[in-house]
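@channel sequence for tomorrow's demo:
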Amino acid sequence: MTDKVHIKEIFTSIQGEGPYIGYKQLFIRFCGCNLSCDYCDTEHDKLNSKIYTVDDVIKIIKEHSDCHSVSLTGGEPLLNAGFLKDLLPQSALPVYLETNATLAGELSEVIDYVDYVAADIKLPSCTGGMSYWKEHDNFFAKASHKALFAKVVFDKNITDKEIDEVAKLGAKYNIEIILQPKNKKDFVKPDMDFVQKTLDKFLQKYKKVRVIPQVHKMLEII
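structure tokens (generated this afternoon):
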């Protein structure tokens, strides 16, 4: 049991990524992450964060019944699995988990209370880090019975091997793959010729793939 945690911010906005674009959500941005991706555009350290109890957050959720769901984001929200295990059974809204899909053990603690899973597949060519194929596989195995989709941030460094590995994961768990051209702080129009060619490479291996850019950056909203 975790009575309180550091939370960077709680706010309402429009979901700007993936298949649930356009829905109003209550976003809870947790501090901390177990990864360090080159393209990360989010401030998730504890600087200027606030400490919240479970009761504090439940009260805020109840005040936003007009939202489609409550989005747990970060950073990596599953680093706070103990807090979430106490919080989520009391949520008055459906729960939408945004995660880097590497913490299968922590997911197991809360998956019964999660409705939607927005899971990243981390490409070494884009993150500047290592691959997590095994971790993603283990994660999807525990999340596949939920409304699960995978988001793949990519750039011109993407490799054919990475495309093959992503397609294999998609096919194994029959999940939709959302390709997202890499952006940092501000929206920059991608090279659409390259994006189309990348999409075509994916579609040769797996059909449930589409391209969706970061719409919230295009609209200049949080």
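heads up for whoever presents: The CA atoms of residues 8 and 47 lie 8 Å apart.
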